[in-house]
Structure formats: C-alpha cells, structure tokens
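Re: the 95-residue chain
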Amino acid sequence: MVDIIWGNGSSVLTNNSFILHVTHRKDGNKSNYKDQEKIRIISADIPGLPNSQNDWNEDIMKKSVIDAFLKCEVDSRDDAGILLAKVSHSGVGGY
C-alpha cells in the first residue's frame, strides 16, 4: 500500500517541486506527515501541466498547483526531507 496525502498546493519551489498544505491523510499510512510538506513531483496528472517534465517551468507550476486540491501518492522521502510523489488533481471534494 502506498501512503497518500491530500491538500492545497501553495508556494512553488522549483520547476518540479512545491509546498503542499496537507489537509487529509489516508488511514493506514505507514509514515506521519506534517501539516506542510515539500513535494517533488516524480509523475503527474495535473490539468495545465505538460506531459513532459522538460516543458515544465516555475510559471506553469504556479498556474497548475497553487490553490489546487492535490492528491500525492508518496514514493519516498529524500535526504533533505522532501517527499517524492505522484501528484494528481483531486477534483471537487474528491479523494
């Protein structure tokens, strides 16, 4: 089972990372997650974000993740404490 967290995207850090304000955590997650987590996207299904990461930039990231309700399927946490995750748009009231 994969750990999953949901929340609203806020500050963009780089062309593939951002801060997530965590509002929901899947019951049964193996790890604990803070109310604010840094996320590095390893795979994405987000409207407005091009399929190829080579086409991503900070402006596109801002338009795609800020204030969006996002689902993050956590792969791992790197040595700097950043979560590596598959990120998707969660939709209206959906998990």
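The radius of gyration is 12 Å.
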